[in-house]
Amino acid sequence: MSITDIFTNPLILSMFLGALFIGILISLSASLLGVTLVLKKYSMLGDGLAHIGFGSMAVAALSEKILRNKFDGTLGDYSLLISVPIVIAAAVFILRQNEHSKLNGDSAVALVSTSALALGYIIYSYATGQASDVCSSMFGSASLLTPSTADIVTTVILSAIVISVFVCCFNRIFAVTFDETFSKAIGFNADRYKTVIAVLIALTIVMGMKMLGTVMISGLIVFPALSSMRICRTFKSVVVCSAVISVICSVLGILSAFLINGLTIGPAVVVVNLVFYIALGVFGKIKKA
Amino acid sequence: MTDSNDVYIRCRGAAFSYNGKTALSNVSFELSRGDYLCVLGENGTGKSTLVKGLLGLIKPDVGTVEYIGASRSDIGYLPQTSGIPSDFPSSVYEAVLQGQLKKLGRRFFYSKEDKADAENNMRLLGIENLKNKSFGLLSGGQKQRALLARALCAANKILLLDEPVAGLDPLVTSEMYEIISKLNRERGLSVVMVSHDTKSAAKFATHILHIKNEPVFFGTSEEYMKTELYNEFLGGCGHEHH
Ligand SMILES: Nc1ncnc2c1ncn2[C@@H]1O[C@H](COP(=O)(O)OP(=O)(O)OP(=O)(O)O)[C@@H](O)[C@H]1O
Ligand SMILES: [Mg+2]
Q: Is residue B101 a contact partner of residue A180, using CB atoms and an 8 Å limit?
């Protein structure tokens, strides 16, 4: 495919614009939360939650199979109704672990996520009988499709929630990220905002899972934050810069997935992020020198 | 003479422990409006534990810590060690502004007054020129001042300081004592300060609490200067000079 194909073929154009629209919303949400996750040393949380999301999608596939057999009717795509609560519950569980348990956050992530991945894989293969389905849910859809209206509506609603809550709670999220103990000491309800952060992350993961795949979404969360931290020194600038980098990388990644045959969006976006990370590292070194 | 609303915090027989091991017990004292209380004691005797207990970061096993004329939102806190990683991307201003957190109330963003207040406190501690510097890149003493400015932002009624002058040079140390004393007198803040500097404690504080895993002395500094504890310390000092 060439650039002109994208803009002359109306079908491809609508696919491209749809992917771009959804991609930008997801990358904005992911990059904002990524800053807090990276700084709280919870980089792997996104990865773990995505595995749980994979498990929940498997459960959805299985229940769909059972219900189809029983009712023999067409069911809408209700996998979100199953994924959202499961991933939120897992996020809250993991983020609030360190308060009252001997299991530290890192181990909790590893434990819960591998179990979910393993169980999810078994359930998935049983429910669908196809390995390719598993592959596409891990690395994102192999084929480029016009996003359905339902996909677009869900993404718009979820990302609107994530972005607006993040912006409104910016100062509180900074407080929890920068120095949780101090926040608690002056009578601030830090646990409540940790729960808010957990819910926002869960929503972001669920949004991104379909398009980028469960293995790739975590890259979208940590890369922009790490990249911007190589050139910015204040919290606000890191957040803004990370959002900008993330959107640029997603646009470039999606564009290359359309231009290069056989390239899927998830890995493409992650690789562009990697390139930016390396480039900004070099730039940061040069600036310092 | 003290009206009950003038009592800010009242501890009654409070004991604190970590994983079932008691670190501090039998604490009873009152902190009233305008008090300047110095907490003295050797390393590991429970001073920071007491501070965390007063803040509600750890709960007493037995006894009570009661807030009467003040609430937990009226406290500014300077931790002994902050635990903020040095690579955390934050400007000094952003760090200080965290002290205004409780003033947000139901609002989302800081008001002009909140910001101006933070800047005033930075000026008071002589760090206004560091405003846009990266917090992680400050020297130990500069960090300490920034964190004290943050504590001041939060301190409506009470200032809890866990070894505020540790790591500061002698000049800055005496400056810091002057500032704290001035805040105590002029803003009417009650101060609780953990310290190893017995002499300055006796000079500036109104009250002394000396602990050795439980209080061994609580009273005014004049009374403290008449005790064995203080003379022991002076004796120790005199000994060093020979
Ligand atoms: N988080 C913790 N977990 C377990 N034990 C602790 C913890 N914090 C303190 N302790 C123990 O409690 C006791 C009192 O500690 P604390 O920090 O209150 O001492 P301190 O008087 O502040 O000492 P320093 O002068 O060195 O600051 C010590 O024996 C210490 O080992
Ligand atoms: Mg201590």
A: no
